[in-house]
Write a structure and sequence with these properties.
Elements (H helix, E strand, L loop, with lengths): L4 H7 L2 H18 L4 H19 L8 E4 L1 H8 L3 E4 L7 H8 L3 E6 L4 H11 L2 H4 L2 E5 L5 H10 L2 E6 L16 E6 L2 E6 L1 H9 L3 E3 L11 E3 L3 E3 L7 H22 L10 H4 L11 H4 E6 L2 E6 L4 E6 H12 L2
Parallel strand pairs: 1-9, 2-5, 2-8, 3-4, 3-5
Antiparallel strand pairs: 6-7, 8-10, 11-12, 12-13
């Protein structure tokens, strides 16, 4: 194998290689694509796309209308579910441009940075109709009910870094979903709240490529609580269908999903690892003089001396 440990250290610094190692684990579980050189190409493509997406001009390339079914759902102040995929910021900004009020659920970790980003990117009139709501708020259900009464569309990123809890100090609500070849314990509190609020839940997928002006914002699905026999049935239907749309999107455009970089911190994927070659199960890391090996299957990191690490790296990468 021509991809050897020395080239790792030469071509990538320790921080970037650490990011790639966990990207590789997330990517491999879901996509079941092997080989560090191949995965590095996807990693570089994803980094490049994330930079492009983050610097995109949000004053152009926006949707100027909604489909008839989506427009009808928004009249009832919907819960909008989407993902950190493609040019995902065009969804809330397009809605603002059409005159809607939008409330975005965000984690405490990124609350201030997201607010600052949109404050700089948007014209004041649009920004005045945008709210950010803490996803960790123990009173989130009542906050969302109040916002809907005030005419806001509530937007939730299903793959976000935080979710609603069952009660103050409680655990997050999660539902097992399939994504690619893996299973995730995905946050599902937003679906519970939509059911209890009897709010239309609209699944939207962002454009995978930078859109041109004048496109129509279309729903992938609109879910109604009245169409399901129980809350559990409703939540499972919403979650499986939403992640089914994400599955189709990342199969077509893998580099368009931002969560490859941090999925291991929010909802670690699990897949059948029996067929993984040994060279694809472990990946060596080196930070300063301290060596590690990451078990990509179980997301466990083992500390090693540098001398041992190089020997293990040679065995792994030449297997």
């Amino acid at each position: 194998m021509n991809f050897i440990w020395e080239s790792i250290q030469t071509d990538r610094d320790a921080t970037e290689w650490m990011e790639f190692a966990f990207f590789s684990a997330n990517f491999q579980h879901i996509m079941q694509l092997y080989g560090h050189p191949l995965q590095l190409r996807y990693f570089d493509q994803t980094v490049k796309f994330a930079q492009q997406q983050a610097t995109a001009d949000l004053s152009t390339g926006l949707a100027t209308a909604c489909s008839p079914m989506l427009s009808q759902a928004l009249e009832n102040n919907a819960v909008i579910v989407t993902f950190h995929f493609g040019f995902y910021r065009t969804i809330p900004v397009s809605l603002l441009g059409m005159g809607y009020r939008v409330a975005i659920l965000v984690s405490r970790e990124v609350f201030e940075s997201q607010r600052a980003f949109y404050a700089q990117a948007l014209q004041p009139e649009w920004f005045a109709r945008l709210l950010f709501v803490l996803a960790e708020d123990p009173q989130l259900f009542f906050r969302i009910r109040q916002l809907r009464e005030q005419g806001y569309q509530v937007l939730c990123y299903a793959d976000g870094g935080a979710g609603a809890k069952q009660a103050q100090g409680g655990t997050e609500k999660r539902t097992q979903v399939r994504l690619g070849e893996a299973y995730l314990q995905a946050r599902s509190g937003f679906a519970d709240m939509a059911y209890l609020l009897q709010a239309p839940l609209c699944v939207l997928m962002p454009p995978a490529t930078q859109p041109t002006a004048g496109w129509e914002l279309q729903e992938r699905e609109i879910h109604s609580a009245k169409e399901h026999p129980s809350r559990q049935a409703y939540v499972e239907k919403v979650m499986h269908s939403a992640y089914g749309h994400l599955d189709s999107a990342i199969r077509q455009t893998p580099h368009g999903w931002e969560c490859w970089f941090y999925l291991h911190r929010t909802m670690q994927p699990r897949s059948f690892m029996e067929g993984w070659p040994i060279a694809e199960r472990f990946i060596p890391l080196l930070h300063g003089q301290q060596g590690f090996v990451l078990d990509k299957g179980l997301y466990r990191v083992y500390r090693l001396k540098e001398s041992k690490l190089k020997k293990i790296a040679e065995l792994i990468l030449q297997h």
